[in-house]
Amino acid sequence: RWTTFSICSPKVCIVGSGPAGFYTAQHLIKVDIYERLPVPFGLVRFGVAPDHPEVKNVINTFTLTARNSRCSFYGNVNVGKDVSIEELQQAYHAVVLSYGAEGNRRMGVPGEDLAGVYSAKDFVGWYNGLPSCQELSPDLNCETAVILGQGNVALDVARILLAPTDILKKTDITQPALEALVQSQVRRVLIVGRRGPMQVACTIKEFREMVNLPDTRPEMMADDFEGVKEALKDLPRPRKRLTELMMKTALEIPSEKEQERQSKASRVWAFRFLRSPIEILANPDNSRTVGIRLAVNRLEGSGDGARAVPTGEVEDVTCGLLISSIGYKSLPIDPSVPFDSHKAIVPNNMGRVQHTAGLYCSGWLKTGPTGVIATTMNNSFDTARSVVEDMESGTVDVSAARPGSQSISGLLEERGVKPVTFSNWEKIDSLEMSRGEASGKPREKLLTVEEMLQHLTWTELILYTLKGNPMFFIMDAIINKLLQCKSIQMV
Ligand SMILES: Cc1cc2nc3c(=O)[nH]c(=O)nc-3n(C[C@H](O)[C@H](O)[C@H](O)COP(=O)(O)OP(=O)(O)OC[C@H]3O[C@@H](n4cnc5c(N)ncnc54)[C@H](O)[C@@H]3O)c2cc1C
Ligand SMILES: NC(=O)c1ccc[n+]([C@@H]2O[C@H](COP(=O)([O-])OP(=O)(O)OC[C@H]3O[C@@H](n4cnc5c(N)ncnc54)[C@H](OP(=O)(O)O)[C@@H]3O)[C@@H](O)[C@H]2O)c1
């Protein structure tokens, strides 16, 4: 699978170790990956819902790539801060930016920063163990939660809020999140979209999961589906099937068995359509949210391109928790890198960053924050192809040798930055899995960068002591094995 070159040893580095970073790396002959966190895999670790473990299997392929001697992983390196893009460009023939979309779109309405209002990005980061989101501790002490946006992230959040904790406790959800969800008072989740049922952004698999979610029942409104049946025949097949399932959920009388299940359900979810946020409502002392004011919309046009237009009517919905799930957003990394702040992407042509030879982008940074892992894979392969073509055609000059990681490692050392290697990540991985095993979960994630680095320092200390010993390599293997055992949990 590795592309080979007639030219000698071109040096390429990738910034970010999410799916885009790894899929780009898969197609390059020799590559260094710089990752801000000590742990790899981006949103596969910190985004994908804990109750979707099968999606995380892509990690196995990424691990094979990372273990290959052609690929080196440098975790704990914050590009843009610890090392600049210009320094990477001097050290490498090509630099691929794959640092994802770490910001979020804002609603741009008054009250957005009130307590009780969260972005889905932070909420997801919280339950998935993203170190920067561990302070969030969302207040779940209310009956109704409103989620704005009707994409798959909105559905992930709704499911996590409503799923029986007996299911969640067998996943890699973090322990603090699990404990908060056990105590949660949330009984009703409204998933609010600015357009109609035929414009929802979620997919059928995720909607079906909501329909089948144990101990919950849907509360859809029949009126929302007026005229939808007539439009079905013109819809593309995936949209048609999804709309049919929504209609069935909203309009059909369920089977007796299903009625019985629903009557016993303690929690409710619903889709609300044609509603846009105009203000987050605060309690009298303005300290936290008590609801949201929504503009009632009508649709102009039809199909995917239909536009929401306010009718002038407004509606207030009472809620104690508001999660805005209207999309992630890439952020500029360095003033030297072109950035289209309107689209929030690095402007590019097939991954080639405009006006900057030798600089590329892939993944969500290249396309904007939509697309599943498979979409990200394809766009990353395209970028890798562009890199290879440019090197072969001479558009990127690889005739003069570049120092690659050698010079960057020197800079990092001068700056007191200690990169985490892939085998060091595997030590963290082993520890997390053994901690998880102890509580019947696939893993119990370390929740702070300090904890992660501390664990490595401890391991290193033992190995350092043993290094003078001729038995070092055998001992290294034994230590690694032992670290998987519960008896040597140090953190
Ligand atoms: C909540 C959520 C759930 C999802 N669930 C699914 C799912 O179930 N199935 C599916 O197919 N797709 C899912 N997706 C989509 C999938 O996660 C994306 O398609 C994919 O992760 C995008 O890959 P990426 O590499 O561009 O970005 P990311 O995965 O975000 O990776 C970017 C990486 O860059 C690193 N980075 C950031 N800044 C720097 C820096 N300055 N220096 C160095 N490194 C840096 C980050 O730490 C991160 O590791 C989900 C997305 C979200 C948001
Ligand atoms: N299980 C999975 O496979 C899975 C899970 C999670 C995420 N993902 C993928 O990850 C990607 C990102 O998901 P996402 O849910 O963050 O994004 P998304 O699919 O783009 O959905 C965003 C939602 O926010 C709405 N929205 C955007 N701007 C708004 C505004 N200003 N006011 C009100 N509503 C607004 C959109 O409505 P409009 O349509 O009207 O713009 C849409 O309903 C998607 O491709 C998704 O499929 C996949």
Automatic annotation (TrEMBL):
Q: Which residues form a coiled coil?
A: none
Binding positions for FAD per the UniProt entry: 20, 35, 43, 79, 364, 371-373
Which is a GO BP term held by this UniProt record? cholesterol metabolic process
Q: What Gene3D superfamilies does UniProt report for this protein, alphabetically?
A: FAD/NAD(P)-binding domain, NAD(P)-binding Rossmann-like Domain
Pathway involvement of the protein, from the record? Steroid metabolism; cholesterol metabolism
- Keywords carried by this UniProt record: Electron transport, FAD, Flavoprotein, Mitochondrion, NADP, Oxidoreductase, Transit peptide, Transport
Q: What's one GO MF term for it?
A: oxidoreductase activity
Q: Listed GO cellular component terms? A: mitochondrion
EC no. given is 1.18.1.6
Cofactors (names): FAD
Instruction: Name the catalysed reactions.
Output: 2 reduced [adrenodoxin] + NADP(+) + H(+) = 2 oxidized [adrenodoxin] + NADPH
Q: Where in the cell is it found?
A: Mitochondrion
Q: What family does the Swiss-Prot or TrEMBL record give for this protein?
A: Belongs to the ferredoxin--NADP reductase type 1 family.
Protein known as: NADPH:adrenodoxin oxidoreductase, mitochondrial
User: Which species expresses this protein natively?
Assistant: Sparus aurata (Gilthead sea bream)
What is the gene name?
FDXR
